[in-house]
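chain below, 175 aa
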Amino acid sequence: MTCYAWHGGRAYFSEFSEKAIRSGEGDALGWGFYFAENRKGGEYFAEYLNFRDGAGYLYEVLLELPEDRILPLDAPYSKINPHVRSRISQVFRGKEMRFGFHSAYRSLREELGDKNAAAALKDVGILALTASEDTKPGHGMTYLVLDRSRIVVTRIFKFSKAPYEWQPLPIPLPN
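prediction:
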């Protein structure tokens, strides 16, 4: 699956860096890079950070994620792609999975810590997790990407309060 997604943040950069994980606004699903399916989701975080810190950037990215490498946390076990089920069976050994993976993944995070839980999934070939985001209107699906090589920045915008608008910016050269 190749799709566009959105990220709101307070830094201006050309590539996502593991050094910046946890420097932003939250980590509800654990360690990794967060993206919203819909632009409104990215705008929400960029605007929030602008009002709080005086800087807000919106990133449009291309995510290159094969379907058999994505773990949908909201899906019941029976609906998970068989290739994904086989990849994660040893990682989630002994954890309840019949009703979805949120609780099993939460247990794994508590047991191993967020970064090690993400590494365990990545070690068996899982590149991203998905979860529905019902608390923010217009956000759509949340993507938690575990492998930064699957993220390509395609456009960047800076938030302006007055007049309210998104100003396109050039993508800076990589460091």
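The longest strand covers residues 151-160. The radius of gyration is 17 Å.
thats it, cya
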